[in-house]
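Please, structure for the following, as tokens.
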Amino acid sequence: MSCPYARENGVDTAQQGKNLLDFGGITYTSYLQLHKILNAQTMMSTEDGTPVHDEHLFIIIHQAYELWFKQIIYEIDSVREIFSQEEVDEHKMLEIVKRMQRVTLILKLCVDQFLILETMTPLDFIEFRNYLSPASGFQSYQFRLLENKVGLRGDLRVRYNQENYMKVFGDEPEVCKNIMKSEEEPSLQNLVSRWLERTPGLEEKGFNFWNKYKMAVDSILTQEYREAETEECETLRSHLIDQNKKRRELFDSIFDSRIHNALMARGERRLTHRAMQGALMISLYREESRFNQPHQLLQLLMDVDSLMTKWRYSHVMLVQRMIGSQQIGTGGSSGYQYLRSTLSDRYKVFIDLFNLSTFLLPRNCIPPLTRQMKNRLSIMEEEQKEEESKVTSSALHSTAKAPIPPSDSPCPRENGEEKASSDSDLEKSLENSMERSCEASM
């Protein structure tokens, strides 16, 4: 059988006059199932004859939102799957960051789509609004899935018409099943929290970042208090001392695990106590090679939170523009008033990452890394072990070939004779240097 693609001098000698589609395969239209998609815009206003022109735009915009929500959920699920492993492969961090960057870009596009919808005037919307009841944007079950998968807690949701948000899906058992499953599965926030708890450097028997961080904070606050006491103006002195006391209480809220856990129970904090420590360490030492991508991820998680808040805000403003602040929504909710209540911090899943800036230290007061910790964060542990293995192998190979020195030649000293500074000695020296540096900067 001759090859159907055989060509001679640029001319198809076997199948002249035919193209690739003649040999079978899939077409653009069938691959994208465009017949289904392009025929899925059923305009309700056609019941009275001529359809309202802007209803077509209204449908297209919302269908586009649902498709983008589906892609975001697909990306979030893939990231959750990676984080679900007992030990997250650090080599997959680049893929995680790439997918979360994609999510943020899609969310930006979703926010910008409101600009297109705003070309429709309130009078245009009124022409077909009555045909939509009781349909409502609140019934977007994909957006509820997205909120749950990212990590929005059910007890922090604003009740919809004083009832659980799932009631609007009562006639769709499959939808309810998927939503309940999304509530029960570990969310992205849960998985990221578990990952942060394993941040290298938090070990008490190792670098013990948290203890060093406490010492640095205490040094800064003590110095501030001493300077406040020397202030001659009594009013200013009293103000400075009061501010210092409030700052110390604020730092106590992250140092004391009981206070932190109480704030978690009230929904004011979401990350576990140890996860907060990990996030803070990554933020302070983000310039270290091993923390570069984790720090990018923390920034992207805040971007996701910000963009979802912007999306809700744009939705609120659009509703106010179209139906005002007092009119009831098509789904029976309070409309604008309900949507505005979803803009509070209780809907920010990664609120702790935003508030980390409260606890950052000046660069010259950040506890210095020990030589061992610096090396640990400079390269991946796997690469480090591989490098050490190569060095050991090379040393053994060199030793085997090296000539035996004569008895009168000076031999290398034993390890015990040439003593280098230990990490603990270096650590103490660096801490003393840090304290002097902090005091000088005050």
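The longest strand covers residues 7-8. Residues 207 and 298 are 22 Å apart (CA to CA).
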